[in-house]
Amino acid sequence: MRNDDKYFISNYNIYVDLSAENGFSYVFNTSSRMLISIKGEITNKENLSTAVCSLKKDEIALLKKAEIIHENFNEDELLLNKINNIKKSKQKLMITIIPTDGCNFKCQYCYQDNARNHVISKEKMEGIIRWLDLNLDGFKEVHIAWFGGEPLLCKDIMLQMMEQINNLCKNHGVAMVSSITTNGYELDIETFKKFVRKRVLYYQITIDGDRDNHNRKRPHKVYEDSYDKIVNNLVEISKLSMSYRFEIGIRINIASDTSKEQIDTFVKAMKEKFEKDKRFVFIWQWIRDWGGKRIENYKDELVSNENYSLNLLSEAEKVGLYSKDLISAGSKFDSCEAFYNHGYVLNYDGLVYKCAMHLNDFENCIGEILDSGVMKINKEKDKVWAESYEKIEGKCVGCCFLPICLSNRCHYQERIVGKLQCLECKGMIRSQIKSMINKNKFIQIGGE
Hints:
Number of helices: 15
Largest sheet: 10 strands, mixed
Shape: globular
Helix content: 25-40%
């Protein structure tokens, strides 16, 4: 759609019309991740094209900066160039380390085999450190993610490695960001403080609703209760002064049998404990078939789409809980390591993968880190992941979610299985746009 032969309206715009309530409409662009408010009723390209005709030159410049309108070029081609440049860039080195495949929980819907209990050896630890020392130069930042199994079963190993990684990054002049995905059971206050000092600042911990619901879905292997231990750990962490900068994402996996009453109980408990602390954010998800054998006994409780989670997210935000930012303008492309050419999952045994969800898929293991610090990569297997996006076709053409989808879709399903999956959290993104509006996180143009 062109405007006065000067501008095209982006296909990547999402429109929220609140003109009947406050006289303004809102346009969010999924490529720039910027939100603009415009006077009047704007629900589609045609409305926006008409509105642009009456805007001032500086206001049109803002729309161009936000990529809501653009000049005469192929928008899809520009997007592919942007995506591929980020995919191939040496800006980030994305590393996920699996120190153990053992776990102290036996979650009902977990995709991992419950019988494993391997731990990374000293030789493999040293091999990873040597490899980083050999390869950090040229990168601006390195992201170290810890995953498992339950990684905190190896907390001493992790702390030792983080000490070495921090020193390496300082020596090479590379910024470092680190995160842990953990069940939270072993995250006592002293452990947490040690990790924060090592610059592990981002955490994801799952609490599946109220005590009874959580303990049924995510039981400890030995003890009857896992809920109280996790929540008590988080409460102690919340008492730390605001000089401790971190983010803890509390994830809730909704099942089809999760009642509103159970969630209400959970929301009330979380509100009492974390309402005033913006360091705690909530991630509303729904249980899908993530693979593995145990899910076969859980099929009846799977949730087919995001709608139930979306309703609960909305209710939680009304009482003051912060939701995880899915569309931050600051993050732009926050995909997993599988998206990046310089992204790797390093298993406890030294084997190298691209996806942490499929560590037992030996056919698609792309290489190995030797104890010497040399990474041997099978170029043919790696090529499948590293290939650039060449064209946009089929149902993706004209989709407003495409810029977010390209970086955040399941790359294993796309590259290995050959199944194109649409972005699953479309409704949550729309909900978050409305949350941005409520928090006045937009640029206003037009009107008084």
